[in-house]
C-alpha cells in the first residue's frame, strides 16, 4: 500500500498496533469482505479511547484508505465499504453486568460521512458499550491483519484468537460456524463437503501461515453428518515477531530516538538495537557525533557499528615528528572510515535495489498475461526519460536502472505493493 503509514505520523489510538474487539462484534461481522473487515477494525482502533465518551469520531480519509489498503484517492470504494458497515447488523447474546442474559442488535456503524477529506462516523450507544467492555474482548493485531488475503481466514483468526489461552474454541454447531464465516443462507455451503473444501481448509492454512497462532480443526459427527466443529489453538513460534508488542518497547528508548534524529529508518533502528544492544549503539552514536559533520551519517554509523570504531584516547605531548606521524595516522584512519562509509552506503543501496527488483518480479508474476501487457505499456508511458525508456524496452522489469520509477508506478497502482520493505 502506499506505503505503510509511518508510526510517528499517527496520532492518538492509531499509534497502538492492536485493538480490543468485543466478542459480539467478532461473531457478527462474518459477511464483510476482507477490506471491509479491516476497515471495521481500523475505525474501532481509532475510536476506542473515547468510544463511550464521544458520540462521533473522526479520522483523515486518506490516512484511513492507506491503513486499510485502498488507493489513497479511491473514495468510491471507501464510500461503498462505509455503506456496507452501516447496512450490516451486529447481534450479541451475552450476560449483562447483573448476570442476566442480554440480547441486542445494532448496525455496525450508526452513520458515516465524508466531508473535507475527513471521515466522520459513530456507533450506537448500546454497541459502543459492548465494543468497549474490557471483560469480553480479543486483541486483534493490525500488523497481522494486514497480511491476510482472505476474509474467511481473517474471520476465523478473529474468532479463534480470543481462545488462545484456553487452547480450544469449544464445540461450535455447524450452523453457528456458517454464520461466523458469513456463508449462512448459501445453499452451496449447506453441504459440509463444500464448506470444508472451500472455507475451512483454505482458512486454516492461511491462519497457520500468516498469523501468530496455529489452529487444528476437529469434527464431531451425529450419525453420518458432521454436526459440530472446534479448533485447537496454540501459539505459532515461527511468527512470534508479529505478537502484540511489535517492537513498541524498543521505540520508547532514547537510543531509538537518537537514531530517528539521524534519519535511520524504523526497521533498521530496531534491527541495530536488537542486534548490538542499546549501550553499544549509543556508544557509536556518541562516536559519530564526535567526528563533526559527515556526508552520510547513516553509512558512517553503520561502518562504526560493524567495525567497532572507538574514540581516540587524549594524546600526550609529543615531539613534532611524533605529532606529524599521529596526524598521518589520523588521516589514514579517516580515509579508511570514509571508504568504509562509502562501501556501507553502496552495499545498502545494492540490497535495497535487489529487494525492490525481487518484489517487482513477484508482482509481475502474479498478474495475468493481459494485465502484464497493459502494465508494460502503462509503465513505458509513465517514464519521461528517454534513457530509462530505452533501458526498460531492452530489459523489461529487470531494468534495475528504473527501480525508483518502478516503486512509484506499482505503489500508485497497488497501494500496498511494498508493505514491509525498507
UniProtKB/TrEMBL annotation:
<dbReference type="Pfam" id="PF21205">
    <property type="entry name" value="Rep3_C"/>
</dbReference>
<comment type="similarity">
    <text>Belongs to the initiator RepB protein family.</text>
</comment>
<feature type="domain" description="Initiator Rep protein WH1">
    <location>
        <begin position="19"/>
        <end position="160"/>
    </location>
</feature>
<dbReference type="Pfam" id="PF01051">
    <property type="entry name" value="Rep3_N"/>
</dbReference>
<dbReference type="InterPro" id="IPR036390">
    <property type="entry name" value="WH_DNA-bd_sf"/>
</dbReference>
<keyword id="KW-0614">Plasmid</keyword>
<dbReference type="InterPro" id="IPR036388">
    <property type="entry name" value="WH-like_DNA-bd_sf"/>
</dbReference>
<protein>
    <submittedName>
        <fullName>Plasmid replication protein RepB-I</fullName>
    </submittedName>
</protein>
<dbReference type="InterPro" id="IPR000525">
    <property type="entry name" value="Initiator_Rep_WH1"/>
</dbReference>
Amino acid at each position: 500500500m502506499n506505503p505503510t503509514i509511518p508510526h510517528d505520523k499517527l496520532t492518538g489510538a492509531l499509534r497502538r498496533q492492536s485493538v480490543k474487539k468485543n466478542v459480539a462484534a467478532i461473531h457478527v461481522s462474518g459477511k464483510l469482505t476482507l477490506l471491509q473487515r479491516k476497515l471495521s477494525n481500523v475505525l474501532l482502533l481509532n475510536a476506542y479511547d473515547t468510544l463511550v465518551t464521544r458520540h462521533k469520531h473522526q479520522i483523515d480519509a486518506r490516512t484511513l484508505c492507506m491503513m486499510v489498503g485502498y488507493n489513497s484517492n479511491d473514495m468510491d470504494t471507501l464510500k461503498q465499504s462505509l455503506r456496507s458497515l452501516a447496512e450490516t447488523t451486529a447481534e450479541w447474546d451475552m450476560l449483562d453486568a447483573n448476570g442476566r442474559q442480554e440480547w441486542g442488535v445494532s448496525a455496525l456503524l450508526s452513520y458515516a460521512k465524508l466531508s473535507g477529506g475527513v471521515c466522520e462516523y459513530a456507533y450506537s450507544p448500546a454497541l459502543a458499550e459492548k465494543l468497549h467492555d474490557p471483560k469480553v474482548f480479543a486483541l486483534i493485531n493490525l500488523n497481522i491483519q494486514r497480511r491476510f488475503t482472505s476474509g474467511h481466514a481473517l474471520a476465523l483468526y478473529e474468532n479463534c484468537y480470543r481462545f488462545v489461552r484456553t487452547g480450544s474454541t469449544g464445540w461450535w454447531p455447524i450452523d453457528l460456524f456458517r454464520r461466523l464465516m458469513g456463508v449462512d443462507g448459501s445453499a452451496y455451503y449447506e453441504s459440509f463437503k463444500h464448506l470444508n473444501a472451500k472455507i475451512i481448509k483454505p482458512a486454516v492454512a492461511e491462519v497457520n501461515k500468516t498469523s501468530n497462532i496455529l489452529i487444528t480443526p476437529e469434527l464431531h459427527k451425529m450419525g453420518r453428518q458432521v454436526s459440530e466443529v472446534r479448533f485447537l489453538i496454540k501459539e505459532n513460534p515461527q511468527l512470534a515477531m508479529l505478537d502484540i508488542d511489535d517492537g513498541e518497547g524498543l521505540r520508547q528508548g532514547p537510543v531509538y530516538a537518537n537514531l530517528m534524529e539521524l534519519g535511520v529508518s524504523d526497521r533498521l533502528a530496531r534491527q541495530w538495537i536488537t542486534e548490538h544492544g542499546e549501550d553499544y549503539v549509543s556508544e557509536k552514536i556518541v562516536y559519530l557525533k564526535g567526528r563533526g559533520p559527515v556526508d552520510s551519517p547513516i553509512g558512517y554509523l553503520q561502518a562504526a557499528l560493524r567495525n567497532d570504531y572507538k574514540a581516540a584516547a587524549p594524546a600526550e605531548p609529543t615531539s613534532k615528528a611524533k605529532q606529524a606521524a599521529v596526524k598521518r595516522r589520523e588521516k589514514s584512519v579517516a580515509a579508511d572510515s570514509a571508504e568504509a562509509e562509502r562501501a556501507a552506503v553502496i552495499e545498502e543501496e545494492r540490497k535495497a535495489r535487489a529487494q525492490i527488483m525481487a518484489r517487482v518480479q513477484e508482482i509481475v508474476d502474479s498478474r495475468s498475461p493481459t494485465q502484464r501487457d497493459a502494465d508494460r505499456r502503462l509503465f513505458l508511458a509513465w517514464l519521461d526519460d528517454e534513457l530509462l525508456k530505452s533501458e526498460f524496452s531492452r530489459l523489461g522489469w529487470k531494468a534495475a536502472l528504473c527501480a525508483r520509477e518502478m516503486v512509484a508506478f506499482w505503489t500508485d497502482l497497488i497501494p500496498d505493493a511494498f508493505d514491509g520493505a525498507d
